[in-house]
Amino acid sequence: MMISDPRFGGEIITVKNKPYKFDDLHCLTAFIQEGQVARPDIKEMYAVNFSGNHALIKADEQLLLFKSETLRSPMGGNIAAFNNSDSLAILMKEFKKGIPLNWDELIR
Question: Can you give the pTM of this predicted structure?
């Protein structure tokens, strides 16, 4: 898959080390909810850090999420991920309309 905006997206790694890359967290969550890969077959999940060098953040480690319609991600999920609260606070000041989320709320 071509990643159209490096600030958004995510990745799933299966127990067989097969990677699935997504250009929007909305696509990653839909992939999980549709059962494209059974949950027991998922080894790791990552979100792209909206700030800095856009490195991957492991979903079960210090992942902070912010959803706002004003973010305009590639597939309309409009969710940004961060690995620290300072970066999240800066974005929340810029995009006043939005809500913080955690990973469990996102993948439900």
Answer: 0.88
